Amino acid sequence: MIEGLIAGLFDGISIGAVLLIVALGLAIVFGLMGVINLAHGELMMLGAYTTYVVQNGAKGLGGWAVESYIFVALPLAFLVAALVGLLMERSVIRHLYGRPLETLLATWGVSLILRQFVRSVNSPMAIGLVIFAALFVVGLWVLRRYTDWERIRSWANPVFFLLSFAIAALAGFILQSSGSAQFTRAWFSARNVDVTPPSWLRGGLALGTVLQFPYARLFIIVLTVLCLVGIYWFLQKSVWGLRIRSVTQNRSMSACLGIPTERVDALTFALGSGLAGIAGCAVTLLGSVGPNLGGNYIVDAFMVVVVGGVGKLVGSIVAAMVIGIITYLVGSGTLALVLSPFAALQPVTDFFTFFATTSMAKVMVFALIIAFLQVRPAGMFPQKGRSVEV
């Protein structure tokens, strides 16, 4: 019984670590910018697919590359998700600050676009995107350098965007029509793909005859701790971390003091998106990767942020651990099994037996969260200071 409870607690902590690493970037973005980013799960998906691509490249090299590809995939997943997040912030989010409903709908639309992009992307589409980016960026650079940009920017931006898009779409259509079947085949399609962990992450650490702690989940816990330490150091010890904390506390006063709030917003969104990419890389160790991967985690990630307290790193840690442990102990039937020997607690045992499935355990957790928010609507660790009064 004791061994089963210890194993259940470990699995609950590992689930909490996964939830925390997913919610970490969301907590930073939501806490600073007040943006409900429904595309956060899709940024996580991009990190997972980046890991899949790196793994395939490592298989081509063989040998040591197969055993160490995860250390290349982690920074690349962060970089890819951060760049996509930065593009989202510069092109969509920055125009919708202070308008939560529009931001919600816009990020939901971006999430749908990213899902369909992963299902459909092939070589002609990728070449078309590169052509579009080159034309748009180079064209704007030329216009800014050799024209009176401030006078023409109101119409030059949309016109040049549409012109670049039309040329890129035409090039992609021609390549799609004239290319071979192999050239035009979708890179990923709608099917799930498998990422094989390195051999040193397979199996588990055995303690006695019953307990076994999987190496993959231990790796995720260690990775989560490293991310927490890195984020804490960045926010508390770096210049940009100080600026982020300042803007979080009082945006107007920070702008008056000369802090570039727009750059802070862009950096914060890129950082939160990059953390989603790392989360995507981590969850590939637990199962297959598909276009709907992010949707399986986004609701739980928002639960962690709301229960912990918006913008509170400590709150997110506690909430992720509590939600993960309760979900696993109840959903796996471990709690009902531990209570079953006690006859006096039979009604309680029957109650937890009723919820002893993954889906029913989530229902119970949702109900507990709703009840908790009735008592503490600001979460476990509510914000304090001037930011609450704004």
Summarize the structure.
The protein is an all-alpha fold and 390 residues long.
Could you please describe the fold and organization of this structure?
With 390 residues, the protein is mainly α. It folds into 2 domains: 2-121 and 198-385, Orthogonal Bundle (ABC transporter involved in vitamin B12 uptake, BtuC); 122-185, no CATH class. Helices cover 75% and strands 2% of the residues. It has helices at residues 2-33, 40-61, 64-91, 100-120, 123-146, 149-178, 181-184, 215-237, 239-249, 251-256, 261-283, 298-308, 313-331, 334-339, 346-354, 358-375, 386-389, and strands at residues 204-207, 211-214. Strand 1 and strand 2 (211-214) form a beta hairpin. Helix 1 (2-33) packs across helix 12 and helix 13 crosses helix 16. The radius of gyration is 24 Å and the shape is globular. The N and C termini lie far apart (51 Å).
